[in-house]
Amino acid sequence: MAHNQPFIILGDSTQRTQGRDAQSMNIAAGKAVAESVRTTLGPRGMDKMLVTSSGDVIITNDGATILKQMDIEHPAAQMIVEVSESQEEEVGDGTTTAAVIAGQLLAKAEKLLEDDVHPTTIVEGYSEANQIAQEAITSHILNETLDDKTLQKVATTSMTGKGTGDVSPSELSKIIVDAVKHVTKSGKVNRDDIHLQTRVGASSSATELVKGFILESERAHEHMPKSVSKGKVLILDMDLEIRDPEVDAEFTITSVDQLTAAFEAEEAELRDYADTISKAGVNVVFCTEDIDNRVAGFLSDKDILAFEDVSSDDAKALSRATGAMRVATLHNLSNEDLGTVDSIEIQKFNDDELTFVEAGSKAEAVTVFLRGGTEHIVDELERAVSDGLDVVTAAVESGEVVPGAGVIEIGIASRVRSVAASIEGRKQLAVEAFADAVEVIPRTLAENAGLDQIDTLVDLRAANDSGRAGIIAKGESGELDDPVKHGILDPAAVKREAIDSATEAATMIIRIDDIIAAS
Ligand code: ADP
Ligand code: MG
Q1: Theoretical Cys-Cys bridge with 169: which of 112, 156, 210, 424, CB 3.0 to 4.6 Å?
Q2: pLDDT at 263
Q3: How far is CA 204 from CA 324, 350, 379, in A?
Q4: pTM over 0.90, yes/no
Q5: What is the mean pLDDT of residues 344-362?
Q6: What's the 414 CA to ligand 1 centre distance in angstroms?
């Protein structure tokens, strides 16, 4: 047997890239993706217009939305997209920040690799620096009590730079804080109880908070009432139709009398549904299954409003909004099964109807009703309000906020650099590189505000040695001042997650030195 014969373990079409080539390729791809969202960062960030494969146009400033729409194929680049996705899921804001920091960590790693620092040394250095960064964030937590005013500032900070139509972020922030406060019970925010509903056709300043739920279904019968005040609510998980006979049987009807009798028996059964519902004092029925037309007619005759085929999610929200239980039978219907509403109003919007189910302070679910002149405005408004709701949730649950506008990143870099001095060997270089990488945030905020990056960074470092200064958007440009004074506050959780997930993705990419791609 010839022993110089090579083993063939990969198929012909498999492409393999190894060592530094593999690293360079991955790093370049990751950097490119991060770079693509950099110009959208901060209050002076620009928007992007994305055209989807089906021709839909999305105009947005939201990092996660941009990256999601970009149809990225390269696996390393995809990891940066995942950073912003997990950021969106975990804390809802800071998606651009996370992607941009990950990109910088890769850029700095590239330099270190060129200088022959071993990848595992870089990975260790970055992980240690991440720990120091987390401590730095803790030490920057502000002592403010998180009253409504402060929470509104947190919401406003998360929305600046996003298009909100003609409603200002500060007006929206009041709605957002009211919504979050409404669903908070002993420090825990039931974020799932906050719903968003959108309709084009009015100025975005008509955006409002509804204490309850907005249902999209149509009434089961056109003669049913269009409004109810102070009513009782039944949520039903059964259909109001003729029950199928339990045994398959064939009846032979031999006379008209028999036919009439069969028909009357059916009618009686259907009428019985309506009578039972009416006797229980119900004014509104939300049914997750079908309602026979005749039952709808009987209910309508009794002035009862009913909806059929309500989705299970909607039924759940309606149950939270009105306090009604979900029942699957009409037997022994009791008052405890029923919910209550202050009012129900059906309103027409262009071609469709929306049903506003409001229960005031006792509603456990709320809905932000977003308005805007065009589809694009409403969509971006929805993204802005979601971010606002998420940051206020994060702030309420942890009680921790930190100064924004680049201050926290300057603070992190400074602390990481000072610890780096005591770290031996080449790892020190990696820890220092991490500090430089995090400063991409203030540098980018400066650049997007039209300031000189290097000069501003030098000024910021000096100003934060003794005091507190960030890049405050002012008119066309920006100035250095205390962000807390300007109400620019971010939840600590957003910064923690951004640095953490950026480090994780960057180190994962750096570790790879062999790419085996099947075609
Ligand atoms: P991300 O997707 O990372 O949240 P943003 O475009 O929302 O990106 O920018 C967030 C950054 O902008 C944060 O560092 C925040 O502190 C900062 N920021 C927000 N509002 C202002 C402001 N008015 N002036 C300066 N910086 C701000
Ligand atoms: Mg943001």
Answers
A1: 156
A2: 78
A3: 32, 17, 11
A4: no
A5: 92
A6: 20
Each residue's pLDDT tens digit, 255-264: 777 778 777 8
CB atoms within 10 A of CB 34: 30
Asked if residue 481 has pLDDT above 60, the reply is: yes
With cut-offs at 50, 70 and 90, classify the pLDDT of residue 371.
Answer: very high
> Measured from the CA of 489, which atom of ligand 1 is nearest?
16
CB 304 within 8 A of CB 278: yes
Known catalytic membership, residue 62: yes
Ligand 1 atom at shortest distance from the alpha carbon of 498? 3
Q: pLDDT tens digits, residue range 49-64?
A: 888 778 888 888 887 8
Kindly name the residue from 95, 157, 160, 456 that is annotated as catalytic. 95
Nearest ligand by distance to the CA of 491: 1
CB distance 125 to 427 below 8 Å? yes
Q: What pLDDT score does 492 carry?
A: 95
Q: How far apart are CA 241 and CA 358, in angstroms?
A: 29
Asked whether 45 lines ligand 1 (CB < 6 A), one says yes
- CA 405 to ligand 1: nearest atom: 26
Query: Regarding predicted confidence, which is higher, 296 or 16?
Result: 296
Nearest residue (by CA) to ligand 1, atom 3, is 94
Report pLDDT digits (tens) over 461-476.
999 998 999 999 877 7
Task: Among the bound ligands, name the one nearest to the CA of residue 84.
Answer: 1
Architecture of domain 15-141+402-510: Orthogonal Bundle (1.10)
Beta bridge mates, 353: 348
pLDDT higher than threshold 60 for residue 248: no
The residue annotated as part of the active site, out of 40, 60, 65, 96, is: 96
198 lines ligand 1 (CB under 6 A): no
- Classified as helix, coil or strand, 65 is helix
- Which CATH architecture fits 212-362? 3-Layer(bba) Sandwich (3.50)
Q: Does 481 participate in catalysis according to the annotation?
A: no
| Domain limits, the chain | 15-141+402-510, 145-193+372-399, 212-362
387 tagged catalytic: yes
CA of 407 to the centre of ligand 2 (A): 15
Q: What are phi and psi of 358, to 5 degrees?
A: -115, 135
Which one of the ligands is nearest to 61 CA? 1
pLDDT given at position 175: 96
Q: Could you tell me the distance, in angstroms and rounded to a whole number, from the CA of residue 463 to the centre of ligand 1?
A: 19
CA angle 142, 391, 480 (to 5 degrees): 50
Region of residue 469 (phi > 0: left; psi between -120 and 50: alpha; otherwise: beta): beta
Specify the CATH architecture of the domain 145-193+372-399: 2-Layer Sandwich (3.30)
Average pLDDT over residues 376-389: 91
